[in-house]
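As a representative case, the lines below give one protein's residues and fold tokens.
***
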Amino acid sequence: MATALILIVLLCFVVDGIIGDHHCCTKNPPALNSSSGYGHVEEIGGLKAYVSGSLDSKLGILLVSDFFAAVFLASVSSIVNANDPGSVQDFCVAARNPNSAVFVNGQFCKDPKLAVAEDFFLAAFNKRGVITSPQGSLVKPANVAQIPGLNTLGISMVRIDYAPFGGMNPPHTHPRATEILVVLEGTLDVGFVTSNPENKLIAKTLQKGDVFVFPIGLIHAQVNVGKTPAVAIAALSSQNPGVITIANAVFGSKPFIPTDILAKAFQVDNNIIDHLQAQFPKQA
């Protein structure tokens, strides 16, 4: 009997999911045959279930149906989730006073009727910028800050220019996005490092037209190993992927991480840490 009940409840979950009526089973419970009696709707653990028989069979229905619902919802969400799956900023602190809640996770939306072509447009992405950074690279973003129409769409891109003879996009991570990069000009050495404990470097030399993927959250970098300028375009799976440049975060935090902590972490003398932190503006 318990098996029959479980099958009926599972069938209800399937039907409810297909027809969109999440109360179908509880409004019109299916009748059981006379040998097992008629069932009824009962709330178990905060969930409404159609049950009949012993307590053991009730638990069986609840556990199996709850498991099936979780699997069903997970499979549906994996199909329809084509945008940012969660936070699109570093954090979103709850506002105790609703009147002070002037920020949202992402950006506020304008009335769709007021949308114009410029909301989805960015000019001159093909123009090479002037590289002034000591690392010898320039990153030009095309995310929701530059293209408002990207809001909620879960995608963005960047153009990266590299100076010849070692221009580098230094080791960094994107906390909210996977990156896929294509080389338009030049030759790049690229790679990423896997998580602990392996910390394996996966690297490759890319030529014009080659594509490489950097998984979400992993430290990665690119360096121009050619004698001419290099250019790459990268797409990222978030409207606001975020970027954490490792050297800046570790040695240029605001305020600085205490010297003795970094010296112990890197197993070096304090003087070395002081020298590295001196490369960044001193913070209050």
In short: The longest helix spans residues 55-80. The chain has a mean pLDDT of 80. The radius of gyration is 27 Å.
